[in-house]
From TrEMBL:
Organism: Albidiferax ferrireducens (strain ATCC BAA-621 / DSM 15236 / T118) (Rhodoferax ferrireducens)
Catalytic class of the enzyme: oxidoreductase
Reaction catalyzed: 4-(hydroxymethyl)benzenesulfonate + NAD(+) = 4-formylbenzenesulfonate + NADH + H(+)
Protein's recorded name: 4-(hydroxymethyl)benzenesulfonate dehydrogenase
Active-site feature positions: 249
């Protein structure tokens, strides 16, 4: 069968870019999902100009029409969750149930923001001057550049696109070049939703080629970015130089604290889920397991036993717990961090080796290192794979100190049956999201998402808090 070609969506037209790049299945590298066109700077410029041209009508248009279009997009995504979930599992390597879950999340996000189109409100407040009244309203920011990573190929494009459109902005979406399939499918659904040409544009390609032209384009009013800290830092500086609004969601080195009084079975299950499910490729994954002395031997034994039972294989295979790493480069990075951890004095007690299965893919046995300390690179740098390390501590105070001893601050978790420790941890954890007896990864779609310190910059994404970024406030004074 001929490999299907997929083009960029610019001003309502499907447009061929400079060349095509193959989208490869990490479970089986002989499987090419499709060819995806790669934009150059000129095509990026055309997309921004199309968005600029569409902005006046869209930003002031009928909100019922906006809500109907977003609702229609959400309905179609949900109706096709199995098919799109299969595409997602095939291109990114999440298991099929995880892929279907992510697609459902994307559909629900569009439904949520369909409702938000009708809920944007302002304030009328009395003036300190007699005979004057004051109105505070929210307006769209303009044309927004959305830059997304490979690990959530449909949920992140959805959680940026849906609020951007709901609040009346126009969009240029640049998805990760490793996984363009789901973003292309989303663009195709949007192209049939009744949203006018130019309001939403898809431009696929490498960050090194079209990243700078997008971020620095004078027609772009704001950038919403999710990805690595290095790229995020650079984008923040470029936006500051051009006085553009910017929002960054970046990496994590999330701690999972296990206290002596934890329910052992629950603590093991949520640690395995946090650290290794979705192949550890979640910004909210727990890569540092901070375990107190009293439970340490039992916890370690139970972890090794649970890990030995994990099924690693083709993301589409039945009963698979963990799919492949998403790319060769990421696999090499994961393996190199296992070696770094060992060289620093860590003890590899489970996994950490490449697995050869019947098809050639990027399979890695989830790795667990013990005897690690907070100062080691393995506990300070984001690996972004199924690699976790244990830090053994004496008690709760030390556990909290180590949990916060990181340049990141996205998500954190505690396993305990003590209300006192759970409440204290909730208050004193330096993270944007705190989980009590739940995995550090796995969040709702209608509430704010984001972190502190090196994990996030700018206002929160998702839920009603998304309006902070995707709108700008106007204060109007009226003589009465
Ligand atoms: P990445 O930074 O390499 O790439 C992210 C996006 O930026 C891609 O679309 C890429 O093409 C683009 N890009 C690359 N260079 C660019 C440049 N110079 N200018 C503009 N854009 C450029 O990240 P990744 O490897 O795709 O994703 C993994 C990272 O994402 C991890 O650090 C992970 O923690 C993070 N992440 C964070 C969250 C969150 O919400 N905090 C969620 C998911 C992933």
């Amino acid at each position: 069968m001929a490999i299907q070609k997929h083009d960029n969506l610019i001003n309502g037209q499907w447009v061929v870019g400079a060349h095509y790049a193959p989208n490869i299945n990490p479970s089986n590298i002989a499987d090419v999902i499709g060819d995806y066109t790669q934009a150059d700077a000129a095509q990026l410029d055309a997309a921004v100009k199309a968005a600029q041209a569409a902005l006046p009508a869209w930003s002031t248009g009928n909100i019922q029409a906006r809500a109907d279009a977003l609702d229609k997009i959400g309905t179609e995504i949900l109706a096709r969750r199995e098919e799109l979930g299969t595409l997602l599992a095939r291109e990114e390597g999440k298991t099929l149930p995880e892929g279907i879950g992510e697609v459902s999340r994307a559909g629900n996000i569009f439904k949520f923001f369909a409702g938000e189109c009708l809920r944007l409100s302002g304030e009328i407040v009395p003036s300190v001057r007699s005979g004057v009244s004051v109105e505070i309203t929210r307006e769209p920011v303009g044309v927004i550049g959305l830059i997304t990573p490979w690990n959530f190929p449909i949920a992140i494009p959805a959680w940026k696109t849906a609020p951007a459109l709901a609040y009346g902005n126009c969009v240029v979406l640049k998805p990760a070049d490793l996984v363009p399939g789901c973003a292309w499918a989303l663009a195709e659904i949007i192209s049939r939703s009744g949203i006018p040409a130019g309001v939403f544009n898809l431009v696929m390609g490498r960050g090194s080629v079209i990243g700078d032209p997008l971020v620095n384009h004078p027609g772009i009013n704001a950038i919403s970015f999710t990805g690595s800290q290095g790229v995020g830092n650079r984008i923040a500086q470029q936006c500051a130089a051009n006085l553009k609004k910017v929002q960054l969601e970046m990496g994590g080195k999330n701690p999972q604290v296990i206290l002596d009084d934890a329910d052992l079975a629950q603590a093991v299950e949520l640690s395995v889920q946090s650290a290794f499910f979705s192949t550890g490729q979640r910004c909210t994954a727990a890569s540092r397991l901070i375990v107190t002395d009293g439970i340490y031997p039992k916890f370690l034994g139970a972890m090794k036993q649970r890990m030995a039972g994990l099924k690693i294989g083709d993301a589409l295979g039945a009963g698979i717990d963990i799919g492949p790493v998403s790319s060769r480069a990421q696999l090499e990075q994961d393996l190199s961090y296992v070696e770094i951890g060992k060289a620093e004095g860590g003890l590899l007690v489970a996994g950490g080796e490449r697995l050869k299965l019947s098809a050639e893919g990027f399979y890695l046995a989830p790795a667990l290192l013990t005897d690690t300390t907070a100062a080691m690179r393995i506990n300070r740098e984001e690996v972004f794979g199924p690699v976790a390390s244990i830090i053994r501590v004496k008690g709760y105070e030390e556990a909290l100190r180590e949990a916060n001893n990181t340049p990141y601050g996205l998500s954190s978790g505690i396993a305990t049956t003590s209300l006192k420790y759970a409440s204290h941890f909730k208050r004193h954890s330096q993270a944007g999201m705190v989980m009590v007896n739940l995995p550090t990864a796995g969040v709702d779609y209608h509430v704010p998402f984001g972190g502190r310190k090196g994990s996030s910059y700018g206002s929160r994404e998702q839920g009603r808090y998304a309006q902070e970024f995707f709108t700008t406030v106007k204060t109007t004074y009226i003589a009465s």
